[in-house]
Inverse folding.
């Protein structure tokens, strides 16, 4: 490894889950931002990450190919990934591997590093996103291997102070750099498209939005419960953006409450900013959020957030200033807060303005990406001195 890594552009391998999920979105956006800043990024993943719409001479994608064989009841993704990480590192001279979501990515990266070790040392950085620690990682069957993967990483980052504390408590591993999630203020800005608004809501009606992967932890059905109370007092519509296991329950509740036509389940959408730009409020009633990327995206588009006071959400949404935080599951209180905000245009718009201000001041890509660059160079310097 050349030692001029303190200033020269880096060649970085990024691994993430490519599917609909916060960690894959953050990884893809990070790769794009790094490429814009002159680094070369090689994505190594099972398929093209959802937000990685364009590749370039600084942005590459390498698919993890898995051999199907009757003996393999479950395809060994982690081993195929380690092999591909090793191959890409050799062929393209990666300076480091940055993996998102500890399980099993940190373990695969560890294997790739060990496979390469006889020729050179390839530092591994793991970014913790949330359920890799709070759900998957703390499960007894995964705890020892998750702990091992994190401990073996040359650098570890977490997306919030909350997640750093949780990792420290659960795993006893506390040497973790907090680098919050970020937003590109150009891509995420309020640019309302009247024709899109008209598709979902008649003139004069308000729009509430929810974005998630509809996993039980997101409590998407709570949004319908909340909306059923709001719509009694405020003419409005609910946009449910995303897809996942709880979608059927959401649709069943919509029917049960007689809200068909008032609630639109629009599925996965590539242009989230378009939908946020026509929304008046975002509902995020999750049981747990290590960060709450959807809240940040909404804030950047001047949409106040009504969310559960959980995990890292209070680090993103300032209660009473950029949104309202309430106990998880308190549907009545969330409905009341939403109704009050929808009935007070001036207060809601002011909250929206403050939300964008906060998103840009604390979480803009201009502020956060240099933190990753500095951390990469710090880890590379440590590794070159033989200190892990
Ligand atoms: O739960 C999800 O939506 C997916 C999950 C992931 O890792 O793919 O999201 C986690 O990472 C996001 C990006 O850092 C955070 O914004 C989410 O808060 C976090 N989800 C949870 O902690 C439940």
């Amino acid at each position: 490894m050349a030692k001029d890594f303190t200033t020269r552009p880096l060649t970085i391998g990024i691994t993430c889950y490519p599917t609909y999920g916060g960690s894959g979105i953050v990884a893809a956006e990070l790769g794009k931002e790094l490429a814009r800043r002159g680094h070369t990024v090689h994505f190594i993943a099972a398929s093209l990450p959802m937000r990685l719409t364009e590749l370039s001479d600084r942005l590459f994608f390498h698919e993890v190919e898995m051999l199907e064989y009757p003996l393999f009841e479950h395809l060994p993704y982690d081993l195929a990934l380690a092999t591909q990480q090793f191959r890409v590192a050799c062929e393209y001279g990666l300076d480091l591997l940055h993996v998102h979501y500890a399980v099993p990515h940190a373990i695969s990266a560890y294997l790739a590093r060990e496979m390469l070790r006889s020729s050179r040392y390839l530092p591994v950085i793991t970014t913790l996103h949330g359920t890799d620690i709070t759900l998957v990682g703390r499960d007894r069957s995964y705890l020892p291997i998750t702990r091992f993967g994190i401990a073996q990483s040359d650098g570890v980052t977490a997306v919030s102070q909350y997640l750093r504390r949780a990792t420290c408590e659960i795993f006893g591993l506390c040497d973790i750099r907090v680098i919050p999630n970020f937003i590109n203020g150009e891509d995420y800005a309020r640019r309302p498209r009247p024709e899109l608004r008209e598709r979902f809501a008649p003139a004069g009606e308000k729009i509430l939005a929810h974005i998630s992967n509809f996993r039980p932890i997101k409590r998407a059905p709570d949004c319908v419960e909340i909306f059923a109370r709001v719509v009694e007092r405020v003419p409005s519509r609910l946009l449910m953006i995303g897809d996942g296991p709880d979608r059927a329950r959401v649709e069943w509740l919509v029917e049960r409450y007689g809200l068909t036509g008032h609630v639109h389940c629009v599925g996965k959408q590539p242009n989230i900013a378009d939908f946020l730009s026509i929304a008046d409020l975002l509902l995020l009633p999750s049981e747990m959020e290590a960060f709450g990327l959807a809240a940040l995206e909404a804030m950047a588009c001047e949409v106040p957030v009504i969310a559960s006071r959980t995990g890292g959400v209070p680090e993103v949404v300032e209660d009473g200033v950029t949104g309202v935080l309430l106990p998880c599951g308190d549907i009545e209180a969330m409905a009341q807060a939403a109704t009050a905000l929808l009935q007070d245009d001036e207060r809601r718009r002011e909250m929206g303005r403050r939300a964008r201000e906060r998103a840009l001041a604390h979480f803009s890509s201009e502020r956060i990406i240099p933190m990753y660059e500095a951390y990469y160079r710090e880890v590379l310097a440590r590794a070159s001195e033989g200190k892990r």
Observations:
- The chain has two domains: 11-182+365-384, 194-363.
